[in-house]
Amino acid sequence: MFGRDVPAASGTPWRGEQPVIDKNWTWAFAAIIALTLAVACRADDKAVAGQAGAATPPRAAGPGGPATAGFRPPESCLKEFTPLRDETARRAKLIKAATERRFAPGEACQLVHEYELAQTKMIDYAVAHASTCGIPPKITDQLKANHENTLAVMRKVCTAT
Q1: Within 13 Å and on the Cβ side, how many CA atoms surround 119?
Q2: How far apart (Å, rounded) are the C-alpha atoms in residues 151 and 139?
Q3: Among the ranges 14-23, 61-70, 77-86, which has the highest mean pLDDT value?
Q4: Cβ(106)–Cβ(18) below 8 Å
Q5: Which of 157, 153, 147, 155 is CA-nearest to residue 36?
Q6: Residue ranges per domain, the chain?
Q7: What is the DSSP string of the chain?
């Protein structure tokens, strides 16, 4: 399969102890993780864009309504949320790196589980501090939907072992 030598009818895995996950499955898995990470980062970019709006003058009133100033979340929100987001991104990068090489299903399950835990901490913070930090419900809903995808991937990966 894909130019690799597979032991003929011996039943032994390619790398010795555990079977290696198929490349096609690996790319699909990487795509799901990349999408999840992209949405989480995009949500944070919107928050940063809201902060940048504070430095720009308010826009003039027009057909859309009165002029509004940019919103800047409290520093405590940024100090607490940023490490959670960074840890989630770091875990996603570990998964991406693992998909670029051969890895055992047990390793995949562990990596996805650790990513899911980091994602859960980030979502819990976002939901608990949504009103204080000015996180729109749409963002928390997107994070929750991505988390559901992560759980589905985790179920598939961990049952494959």
Answers
A1: 27
A2: 18
A3: 77-86
A4: yes
A5: 147
A6: 23-54+73-159
A7: -TT----SSS---TTSSSPPPPHHHHHHHHHHHHHHHHHHHHHHHHHHHHHHTTTSPPPPPBTTBS--PPP---HHHHHHHHHHHHHHHHHHHHHHHHHTS---HHHHHHHHHHHHHHHHHHHHHHHHTHHHHT--HHHHHHHHHHHHHHHHHHHHHHH--
Percent of the chain exceeding pLDDT 70 equals 54
Tens-digit pLDDT profile for residues 50-68: 444 444 334 444 444 444 3
Which class does domain 23-54+73-159 fall in?
A: mainly alpha
Q: Which amino acid is at 130?
A: A
